[in-house]
């Protein structure tokens, strides 16, 4: 198979879909890998390293898309890439379709095969390709939140962990999944007074068993959230429903209950955000203020630490990528139910129910489409 790795052109995105080791392994299995010139530099992988293991460098993104059977990316294609995606081409990346109707319709029109990292799912319902970036984003959410609590950046002027004789900041984490757990651990480690909310009582029990003494677990509901936001200094949105839009847990009206300088960090922004006032921002212009509340809603938070993020991501994606390359997408998805769940759009048909629901578009059962592909 011919695999193409284009440069990520989303604003302030420096990650790359394959490390040098990943390219070497694909070539060892008999595949050809084309990398766009400079694609790995931001993550610490210059072109010469890719060439040293047999990777081929192409000058433009157009050349990479034109030659590849499978495109491996980190972030979803942006508008400039829509017309580059070919019919029958496999695109393996984070898509987060439910947050973007234009992207969804563009990929339908392309008649490509879209396999989304974020919906590849194991038997225990875990999301192995979302975990590494969720871990990075969860930890970064506290790091960024602590910074934007500083007064020069319009925050409340509170040190997250306080000092002897002074109370620490209060941190509210909405969601007890991978992001929420990592955020709570980081905030607790810095000495903050942490509250983590989730709708699952078993999950709250698990968190209660492993968290430090300065972490409190509370059942998530509208009343409890409304009470908690009034005394929180940093609120982290860490809610995920695989393949669907995130629920809006913090309303515009709740902002009026918060103290001036409170900081909101929405890690769910890729799925539409879990704050009503969320709008995607970039690392270049990361925050905005509504009702004296600071919003940090960067849609690719892990992109700020590209080396860590690239290595962590490719450690998780590569076992699936090698299956797709060795077997082709039909056989690989037939034999691996985890990859089957990663299929979101197949040659113009939406086969992931949450994506179809988000925009009231037609949904086709993946097994029906898949059986037709096997027959062909």
From TrEMBL:
Enzyme active site: 96, 270
Give me the residues that bind NAD(+), please. 134, 198, 203, 220, 239-240, 267-270, 298-301
Q: E.C. number, please?
A: 1.4.1.1
Q: What is the official name of this protein in its record?
A: Alanine dehydrogenase
Residues binding substrate, per UniProt: 15, 75
Annotated Alanine dehydrogenase/pyridine nucleotide transhydrogenase NAD(H)-binding domain ranges read 149-297
A Pfam family annotated for this chain is AlaDh_PNT_C
One term of GO molecular function = alanine dehydrogenase activity
GO cellular component term, pick one:
plasma membrane
According to the entry, every stretch annotated as the Alanine dehydrogenase/pyridine nucleotide transhydrogenase N-terminal domain falls at 4-137
Say which species the protein is native to. Answer: Bernardetia litoralis (strain ATCC 23117 / DSM 6794 / NBRC 15988 / NCIMB 1366 / Fx l1 / Sio-4)
Q: Which family does it belong to?
A: Belongs to the AlaDH/PNT family.
Q: What does it catalyze?
A: L-alanine + NAD(+) + H2O = pyruvate + NH4(+) + NADH + H(+)
The regions listed as transmembrane in this protein's record are none
Q: Which InterPro entries match?
A: Ala_DH, Ala_DH/PNT_CS2, AlaDH/PNT_N, AlaDH/PNT_NAD(H)-bd, NAD(P)-bd_dom_sf
Q: From what superkingdom does this record's organism come?
A: Bacteria
Kindly give the CDD domains that the UniProt entry links to this protein: L-AlaDH (cd05305)
Q: Which GO terms describe its biological process?
A: L-alanine catabolic process
Its ancestry begins with: Bacteria, Pseudomonadati, Bacteroidota, Cytophagia, Cytophagales
- Keyword Nucleotide-binding, does the record have it? yes
Keyword set, alphabetical order: NAD, Nucleotide-binding, Oxidoreductase
């Amino acid at each position: 198979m011919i695999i193409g790795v284009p440069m990520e052109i989303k604003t302030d995105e420096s990650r790359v879909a394959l490390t040098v080791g990943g390219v070497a392994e694909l070539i060892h299995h008999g595949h050809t890998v084309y990398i766009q010139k400079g694609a790995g530099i931001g993550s610490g992988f210059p072109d010469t390293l890719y060439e040293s293991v047999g990777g081929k460098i192409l000058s433009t993104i157009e050349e990479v898309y034109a030659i590849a059977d499978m495109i491996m990316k980190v972030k979803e294609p942006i508008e400039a890439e829509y017309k580059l995606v070919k019919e029958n081409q496999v695109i393996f990346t984070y898509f987060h379709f439910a947050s973007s109707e234009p992207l969804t319709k563009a990929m339908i029109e392309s008649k490509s095969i879209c396999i989304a990292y974020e919906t590849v799912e194991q038997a225990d319902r875990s999301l192995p390709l979302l975990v590494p970036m969720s871990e990075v984003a969860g930890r970064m959410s506290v790091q960024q939140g602590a910074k934007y609590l500083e007064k020069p950046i319009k925050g409340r002027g509170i040190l997250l962990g306080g000092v002897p004789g002074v109370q620490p900041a209060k941190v509210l984490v909405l969601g007890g999944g991978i992001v929420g757990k990592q955020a709570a651990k980081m905030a607790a480690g810095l000495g903050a007074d942490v509250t983590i909310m989730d709708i699952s009582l078993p999950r709250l029990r698990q968190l209660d068993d492993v968290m430090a003494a300065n972490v409190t677990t509370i059942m998530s509901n509208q009343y409890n959230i409304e009470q908690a936001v009034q005394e929180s200094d940093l609120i982290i949105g860490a809610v995920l429903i695989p393949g669907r839009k995130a629920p809006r847990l913090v309303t515009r009206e709740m902002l009026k209950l918060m103290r001036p300088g409170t900081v909101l960090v929405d890690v769910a922004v890729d799925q539409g955000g879990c704050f009503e006032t969320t709008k995607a921002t970039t690392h270049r212009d990361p925050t905005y203020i509504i009702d004296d509340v600071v919003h940090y809603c960067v849609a690719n938070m892990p992109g700020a630490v590209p080396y860590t993020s690239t290595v962590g991501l490719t450690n998780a994606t590569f076992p699936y990528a090698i299956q797709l390359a060795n077997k082709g997408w039909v056989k690989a998805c037939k034999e691996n139910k985890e990859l089957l769940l990663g299929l979101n759009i197949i040659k113009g048909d939406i086969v992931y129910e949450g994506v179809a629901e988000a925009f009231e578009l037609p949904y086709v059962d993946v097994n029906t489409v898949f059986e037709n592909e096997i027959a062909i």
